[in-house]
Amino acid sequence: MQRSALADSDPIPRRKLSRDVLDRLLSRISAGEFPPGSFMPSERELMEAFQVGRPAVREALQEIQRMGLITIAHGERARVMAPTARSMLDQIAGTARHLLATSPKTLDQLKEARQFFEVGVVRLAAARATEQDIKELGDWIEAQHSARKDFSGFLKADMGFHRRIAAILDNPIFAAVSEAMLDWLSNYHVGLVRKLGREQRTLAEHRLILDRIRAHDVEGAAAAMTTHLTRSQDLYARSQTKPPKRK
Fold first, then answer.
1. Class of domain 17-82
2. Per-residue confidence at 242, pLDDT binned at 50, 70, 90?
3. Which CATH class is domain 89-235?
4. Which residue of 8, 109, 178, 185 is 20 to 30 Å from 26, comparing CA positions?
5. What are the backbone dihedrals phi and psi of residue 132, each rounded to the nearest 5 degrees, phi first?
6. Residues 227, 207: Cα–Cα separation, whole Å
7. What count of Cα atoms within 13 Å lies in the side-chain half-sphere of residue 19?
8. Which of these, 180, 155, 177, lies nearest to 232 by C-alpha position?
9. In this predicted model, what pLDDT tens digit does every residue of 187-217 receive, in sequence order?
10. pTM of the predicted structure, to 2 decimals
11. What is the DSSP letter of 5?
């Protein structure tokens, strides 16, 4: 007996009720029915409106929260948030940190991606920087100089300098990516600046980057940033120290 071609096809899976609730709520949020800052209907109101049980409503709301479109606080209705580039990246922060912690290659890949990204950013920054941008970059360098004997403050100012370069582009996506990369990498900063006495070298490299930005020297700024990031790659490493055994 000849088998029908349809017999070998995959069955169509049944949609979960929570998926239908999710689609309807997303449609209403997109249509402006629930604008940013407003509260969503309560779980009970949604259950009655869609004629579904609490698990379907709760699962849909949790998925929307993971998208960064609402916040859910205990005992309160969900509040609609205005999505931003930063909030979108925050949604993957946990996954990124998990990958960095479990995949030996991911940290090296992140450092490589950061160098590619920041060299591209500084090219645009050198072309677009205003006097105010240059002043504020100089302020970050001075803050870093003042914190030479305070590792935490020195690192904070270091990251502030790099974030401020990305801010010159006036593009929230660039700013968010820069901040996310620096945040993820900061968990792997091993403190070699103090150990190896690199404060002055780091400051000199930052001043050279600023000098090239001030001169609107696109290629010079890119070269200075490449040298700086290549030299500082070993400041971010997976810890090789095992925790002491408990006695």
1. mainly alpha
2. very low
3. mainly alpha
4. 178
5. -65, -40
6. 13
7. 4
8. 155
9. 776 554 455 567 889 999 999 999 999 999 9
10. 0.68
11. G
